[in-house]
Recover the amino acids of this structure.
């Protein structure tokens, strides 16, 4: 690199000619760095989770306590074992309570991987151990300290026992650092489980027997399990347990992972595409400006090779410095994003590897080669004679070729980001299709707008005519801007509208609390307590857990059950005399309670799952509850309004069927609204009384659930919005660059207009009209697109009644107008302020 | 000046013809022109607009190649060279002044003058540039950008830029063409003054008789052909 190159570069930079190219490059690299750092770290977090997901080599698990038979067989084979039980339960400290994710483990846990523990302060060194908490102690997730306002050493009430909080969990081998929306972890010793009395009939508990050993030991246990299973569940021949290997744990994660990755890929690609577009336009302009310089240098005797070398050197300097700056900013952006999303992660995510940095560096290189270089390629070949004859044509790389090179660069990047040819092609074609549709709509609107200008006075007509005259540029600006705005509107819509609508669709008399896990012997005292506190309990439903095992005498296969997602695992079953309020019979008949109960049991099923399962009225289904099986006939199909916020069931039996099983009870409660005191909403008095007197009962405040959901959505959408704002900045660059393309032309036109006596007002008015119209059209297209996308999201993903979003239209159009007009006028201020004479001279 | 210097030829053109082909026919812009210029002398090429003066200048300076005929610049037969070779000869011998000044707008006056010297690897560039800018009377304007200078001032910067490289031959294409009469007069005074002081050979294209008359030789071109010579 010679000093002259550096000087030339510095002078171009000083003159502001490189601003756009560099900014575009910095932004492209920044978006890609931020997005891939984020993806990499989250993926690493999840991978950590996957590789030691089970904290064992194999897990035997199910909703029913694991018979000793399994454990003795494992011991016989020489396998290490650890029992684990997971469930949700209220934990208390004084008046404060939290619905925690409790995990009771034997001391041998974890069999694979390590627990990472810490003391009160995060700064303290992490301690890694390979055992669970001793009896009498609990280890908790740090956030529980804040939630309950406790410190290490305090005694936590878990069920009927008091356990001392001794350590903080920063990582569990089978939880890692994934997303968590569940309650805070409380890990207790398996030995304390009986004393807590948390395990009772009907409790929803997930049992695991963790196993670890050599490969042959594991496979002989697996073989034994396949054959011995039936013997173990002898009575009904139904599997209550299954084996989980680390592999199928991965399957469950991959879908969420892929969705996240697709979004990041989408924003990264759009960002690069827009930045690339801006860079290509800006480079074109830069090349025009360099033409005279190159011709002069050649006249002075510089060889083409020397000039080529000098240009490549300068581009390299630009690429390297912009890439480095982009990476730094990208790192900062990803850091901010993580701060926003921090609460979603259980622990600090593992550091990123080198790949995101490589991705960013290559993105910078490819952007320059694909978007900037083609526009500059012809420069060294400029004829020296051009100093005398400025009308000599430049041997530009044709637009078609440049387009192909640009698309190839984009394709190469997408291919590399996604690692899949099919995905990259699909992705880009979808993106280009979206662009094309937007362009077509934009063109139609432009046509209309231009006609509208025809019957308007002076500057409005002038401005609109300008839009139409330079429609190629106009389209580029419109499409680039409206697509990013559209995505942003979708996210904003998701955040504000969906939650709001969901809340609005709640009935006014919606319950304030759910109360469940109430044992039969607690039912009467709880009812009395509620009545004393003026809390109205709705209907109480007895609930037992069971599964569907047979249909009309044939066994129900797991494949068939998994078609009806709601029935594939253990289901909550109830019995009721009256049709619950949010239910409607659509086929068959609800039982007549007065009539003599027939010999056989009857039940009613929710229509959607019935359809998914492929059963109809009159079918006989066999159920298995706690090892006992019985058959019942399907006598009615119901539709259920799931948004009704009362306990709803897929399957309801005619009273009698469940009598021999010990149920626990569930109801919804309507309590008087509570005063907000300080930062916390005061719990209704009955809540504290119930949870203190009946520690195994669970009370859920609806407000708390809504708040939790809203928190999660808020954080996720804030993260998305931040990424999309970066992409929008790329869109703004396209606007800038496109104005730059016609800048000299505009300068000349406006100078001519001014010398011809047009007032400055007209010039400004025409420009303003142009940008306002541009902004309004971009906003309109963005709103249309966002509304369509939201319509389908509401319908398909969120399964709610689609609503219109007039606020989004206003937001879209207003922000389009404000953004584009501000940026546009900012970029063209020279056109307005330079006196006409000077601008004429400048162009000469 | 001594006899030996006078006989040293620095430019020689033998029967030079330049044809260009347009889509429908071939145009002959320069037809069978022969000329010689001795080192340190000045030659004016005059003729009406469109006569082919600039084309001839470009050929003599090695910016373009003739369709027929031979051209020597210094000791080099540039018609036998490729563009790389001609570029090397230009770098060694040639300087330019243009009708449209051709200053780079993003560079200050000083940087404009420095640039060709910097490209040639001259580490005295700044000093020399300052010196020549003072010679053209712009010592106070070093840091000004072209758009802050008048047309005459811009051309003076261009003249400083040309002479600062100490070319053997200076090619000037209508240097006063874009200036009003008074300014043009001053600029041409400066041009001749520096030319004499630095012993440069000057080839000057102009359509102004008065300017041409200050040169040692004049050839008149019309329709690509030499119409007359005097000197
Ligand atoms: N490469 C070219 N292609 C077509 N016409 C040319 C080309 N070069 C010069 N001409 C034409 O030749 C004529 C002479 O041009 P030029 O040398 O610029 O004249 P002058 O400098 O005397 O005004 C003009 O009519 C010009 O248009
Ligand atoms: Mg000419």
């Amino acid at each position: 690199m010679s000093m002259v190159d550096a000087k030339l570069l510095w002078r171009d930079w000083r003159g502001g000619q490189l601003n756009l190219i560099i900014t575009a490059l910095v932004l492209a690299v920044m978006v890609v760095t931020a997005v891939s750092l984020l993806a990499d770290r989250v993926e690493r977090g999840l991978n950590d989770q996957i590789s030691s997901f089970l904290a064992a080599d194999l897990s035997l698990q199910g909703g029913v306590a694991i018979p000793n038979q399994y454990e003795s067989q494992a011991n016989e084979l020489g396998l290490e074992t650890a029992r684990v039980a997971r469930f949700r339960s209220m934990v208390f400290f004084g008046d404060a309570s939290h619905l925690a994710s409790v995990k009771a483990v034997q001391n041998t846990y974890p069999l694979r991987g390590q627990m990472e523990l810490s003391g009160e302060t995060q700064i303290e060194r992490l301690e890694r151990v390979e055992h669970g908490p001793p009896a009498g102690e609990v280890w908790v997730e740090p956030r529980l300290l804040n939630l309950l306002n406790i410190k290490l050493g305090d005694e936590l009430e878990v069920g009927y026992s008091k356990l001392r909080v001794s350590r903080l969990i920063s990582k569990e081998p089978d939880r890692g650092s994934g997303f968590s929306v569940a309650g805070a972890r409380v890990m207790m010793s398996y030995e304390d489980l009986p004393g807590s009395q948390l395990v009772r009939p009907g409790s929803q508990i997930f049992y695991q027997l963790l196993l670890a050993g050599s490969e042959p030991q594991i496979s002989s246990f697996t073989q034994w399990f396949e054959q011995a299973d039936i013997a173990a569940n002898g009575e009904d021949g139904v599997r209550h347990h299954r084996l989980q290997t680390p592999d199928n744990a991965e399957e469950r994660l991959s879908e969420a992972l892929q969705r996240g990755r697709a979004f990041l890929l989408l924003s990264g690609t759009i960002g690069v595409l827009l930045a690339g577009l801006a860079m290509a336009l800006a480079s074109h302009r830069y090349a025009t400006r360099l033409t005279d310089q190159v011709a002069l240098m050649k006249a002075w005797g510089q060889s083409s090779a020397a000039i080529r070398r000098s240009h490549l050197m300068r581009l390299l300097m630009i690429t390297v410095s912009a890439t480095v700056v982009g990476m730094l900013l990208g790192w900062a952006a990803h850091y901010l994003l993580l701060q926003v999303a921090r609460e979603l992660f259980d622990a600090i995510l593992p550091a990123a590897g080198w790949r995101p940095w490589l991705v960013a560096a290559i993105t910078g290189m490819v952007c320059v080669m694909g978007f900037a270089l083609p526009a500059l390629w012809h420069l060294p070949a400029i004829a020296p004679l051009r100093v005398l004859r400025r009308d000599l044509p430049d041997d530009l790389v044709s637009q078609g070729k440049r387009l192909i090179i640009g698309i190839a660069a984009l394709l190469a990047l997408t291919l590399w980001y996604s690692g899949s040819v099919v995905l990259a092609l699909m992705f880009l074609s979808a993106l280009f299709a979206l662009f094309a549709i937007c362009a077509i709509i934009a063109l139609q609107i432009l046509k209309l707008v231009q006609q509208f200008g025809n019957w308007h006075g002076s500057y409005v007509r002038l401005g609109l005519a300008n839009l139409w005259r330079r429609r190629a540029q106009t389209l580029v600006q419109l499409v680039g801007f409206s697509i990013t705005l559209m995505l942003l509107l979708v996210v904003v819509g998701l955040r504000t509208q969906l939650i709001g609508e969901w809340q609005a669709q709640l009935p006014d008399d919606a319950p304030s609390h759910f109360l469940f896990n109430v044992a039969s012997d607690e039912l009467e005292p709880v009812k009395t307590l509620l009545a004393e506190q003026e809390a109205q309990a709705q209907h109480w439903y007895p609930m037992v857990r069971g599964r569907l095992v047979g249909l009309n005498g044939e066994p129900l296969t797991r494949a068939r059950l998994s078609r009806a997602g709601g029935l594939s695992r253990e289901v909550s079953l109830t019995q009721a005399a009256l049709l619950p309020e949010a239910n409607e019979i659509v086929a068959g008949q609800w039982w007549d309670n007065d009539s003599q109960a027939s010999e056989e049991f009857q039940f009613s099923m929710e229509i959607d799952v019935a359809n998914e399962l492929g059963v109809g009225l009159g079918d006989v289904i066999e159920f298995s509850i706690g090892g006992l099986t019985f058959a019942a006939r399907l006598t009615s199909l119901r539709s259920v309004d799931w948004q009704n916020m009362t306990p709803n069931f897929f399957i309801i039996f005619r009273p009698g069927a469940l009598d021999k099983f010990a149920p626990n009870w569930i109801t919804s409660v309507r309590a008087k609204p509570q005063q907000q005191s300080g930062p916390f909403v005061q719990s209704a008095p009955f809540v504290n009384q119930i949870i203190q007197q009946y520690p195994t009962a669970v009370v859920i405040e609806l407000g708390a659930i809504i708040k939790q959901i809203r928190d999660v959505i808020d954080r996720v959408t804030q993260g998305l919005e931040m990424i999309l704002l970066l992409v929008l900045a790329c869109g703004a660059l396209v606007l800038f660059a496109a104005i730059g393309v016609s800048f000299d032309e505009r300068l000349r036109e406006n100078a001519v207009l001014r010398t011809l006596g047009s007032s400055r007002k007209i010039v400004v008015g025409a420009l303003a009209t142009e940008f306002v119209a541009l902004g309004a059209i971009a906003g309109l297209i963005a709103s249309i697109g966002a509304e369509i996308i939201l319509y389908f999201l509401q319908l398909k993903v969120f399964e709610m009644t689609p609503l219109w979003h007039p606020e989004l239209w206003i937001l879209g159009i207003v922000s389009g107008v404000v953004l584009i007009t501000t940026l546009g006028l900012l970029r063209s201020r020279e056109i307005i302020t330079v006196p006409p004479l000077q601008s004429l001279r400048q162009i000469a | 000046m001594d006899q030996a210097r006078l006989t040293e030829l620095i430019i020689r053109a033998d029967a030079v013809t330049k044809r260009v082909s347009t889509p429908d026919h071939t145009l002959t812009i320069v037809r069978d022109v022969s000329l010689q210029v001795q080192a340190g002398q000045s030659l004016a090429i005059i003729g009406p607009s469109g006569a082919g003066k600039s084309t001839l200048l470009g050929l003599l300076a090695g910016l373009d190649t003739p369709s027929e005929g031979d051209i020597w610049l210094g000791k080099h037969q540039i018609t036998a060279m490729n563009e790389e070779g001609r570029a090397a000869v230009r770098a060694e011998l040639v300087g330019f002044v243009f009708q449209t000044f051709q200053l780079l707008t993003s560079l200050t006056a000083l940087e404009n003058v420095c640039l060709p010297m910097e490209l040639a690897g001259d580490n005295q560039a700044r000093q020399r540039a300052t010196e020549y800018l003072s010679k053209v009377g712009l010592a106070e304007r070093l840091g000004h950008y072209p758009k802050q200078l008048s047309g005459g001032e811009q051309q003076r910067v261009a003249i400083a830029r040309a002479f600062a490289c100490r070319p053997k031959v200076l090619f000037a294409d209508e240097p006063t063409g874009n200036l009003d009469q008074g300014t043009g007069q001053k600029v041409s005074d400066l041009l001749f003054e520096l030319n004499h002081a630095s012993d440069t050979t000057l080839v000057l294209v102009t359509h102004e008789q008065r300017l041409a008359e200050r040169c040692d030789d004049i050839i008149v071109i019309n329709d690509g052909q030499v119409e007359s010579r005097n000197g």
Notes: Chain B has one domain: 3-230. Confidence is low (pLDDT under 50) at residues 1-5 of chain B. Residues B 20, 22, 27, 29, 47, 49-55 surround adenosine-5'-diphosphate (ligand 1) (CB under 6 Å).
